[in-house]
Amino acid sequence: NDSAHGFLPRRNVRTNSVPHVAKRTLINVDLQEFFSSITFKRVRGLFLSAPFSMQWSVANILAQICCFNGVLPTGGITSPILSNLMMSRLDKRMNSLISRLGGEYTRYADVISMSFDRPVEKLSSLVLVDSVGVISVGGALSEIVTSEGFLVNQDKLRVSSFGSRTVVTGLVV
To answer: Where are the alpha helices (DSSP H) in the chain?
Structure first.
């Protein structure tokens, strides 16, 4: 997926950050317990579905090899590529939503970045900012993330506006 920048050849934190340079509003979303939310059952399902379409016994054995204690392990040699494959549908859905809103979407592992040339007040389907600056997840973002089997880490949800320090995967944009 063109939106994915982590764990891929010729993709890195720089390529992940470039689409967000000089945008008016930047939203960074971290997915909670990313690798451990990808369960054995989900990994087996990946191997059973296209393009792999493996026999159940083969998919089951491969999922057992790739998982530890029933989940994709952080630091596992197969975890990065499997997580990118698992995120493919989420990436497509988010890309579609963000494009309709006139923005840019990228993902580096478990960090989703979205940027726009419009104020955050016009992005309530993604994030809501109350009168004292408390940020919460908007309905469309929440629906996509949770229906794909993930949760937003509310403590790492960030909104930055043009003129303030805006950072994507450690790089100031």
So the answer is: 13-17, 40-48, 56-66, 79-86, 88-100, 139-147
